[in-house]
Amino acid sequence: MTLAVVLVSPKTPGNIGSAARAMLNMGAKDLRLVAPRCNHLDSGAVAMAVHAADLLRGATIYPTLREALADRDLSVGTSARIRSDLPQPQHPAQIRPFVRAATAPALVFGPEESGLTNADLEQCQMTVRIPTGDYASLNLAQAVLLVCYEFLQGQDEPLDRTRKTATREEMEAMYGHLHDTMHLIGYTDAVRARHTLRLWRALLDRALMNSAESRLFRGLLRQVQWKVEDAAKRGTTEPRPGQEVEAQSQD
Ligand code: SAH
């Protein structure tokens, strides 16, 4: 398993350096920065990284979270807050088996002041919340330490290596396809699309599809699109004679 730590728009070099150190302590090596608001190789960052300076220098910068997650097969968001309009964050113990079973999981952390946005969390299949006292907002690097500890060094679970989950790129392509199809058939409109798709993403992400299953689903969407476009051309939804056979052909 190669676990990536993704810091979304971090502001303070010292936090990035401390996060790199925490990663090395816990056995993670792949640091990804999405649109950082400071120079991650600033002397303050390197000083806080201590022996993890090489890990820090090896960090990859991405313009968007979507690109940072593209090759991952599981994305886990982190949040100090419970948000009414998103699925509830879970205890690390509930999420650990999924991370352990993944080949290329990502842990996603938010900016120091505001945390992850809803749009960021929508790109995560599950969200973890470290239990705390009344003051729930941990320092970014301390959150990285605790979450990496929970998933890399915490209590062992039997490994399930039999399942290969689709990459986030494949899933995002599928959601793009679903979005287009929903518009085509009038299932949603520009005003409701985001909310509708959020509900469907939550449902489909829970399925932890593999690549073949995501292609299967897209095969269905392609057939719906073809049927609607063909009917629009011919001015009827009645099947052509012998069309049913064609309609069965899936990916
Ligand atoms: N004020 C923000 C917290 C930002 S702290 C908020 O209320 O959401 C910076 C980041 O550290 C968060 O985005 C999250 O990634 C992580 N973090 C902080 N506290 C956490 C907690 N209790 N559980 C999980 N992640 C936490």
Automatic annotation (TrEMBL):
One of its GO terms (molecular function) is RNA binding. It is found in: Cytoplasm. Residues 232-243 have a biased composition (Basic and acidic residues). InterPro entries: Alpha/beta_knot_MTases (IPR029028), RNA_MeTrfase_TrmJ/LasT (IPR004384), SpoU_MeTrfase (IPR001537), tRNA_m1G_MTases_N (IPR029026). Residues 3-149 form the tRNA/rRNA methyltransferase SpoU type domain. Residues 232-251 are annotated as: Disordered. GO terms for cellular component: cytosol. Homodimer. Keywords: Cytoplasm, Methyltransferase, S-adenosyl-L-methionine, Transferase, tRNA processing. This is tRNA (cytidine/uridine-2'-O-)-methyltransferase TrmJ. One of its GO terms (biological process) is tRNA nucleoside ribose methylation. Belongs to the class IV-like SAM-binding methyltransferase superfamily. RNA methyltransferase TrmH family. Its EC number is 2.1.1.200. SUPFAM superfamilies: alpha/beta knot (SSF75217). CDD domains: SpoU-like_TrmJ. Its main location: cytoplasm. It is an enzyme of class 2 (transferase).
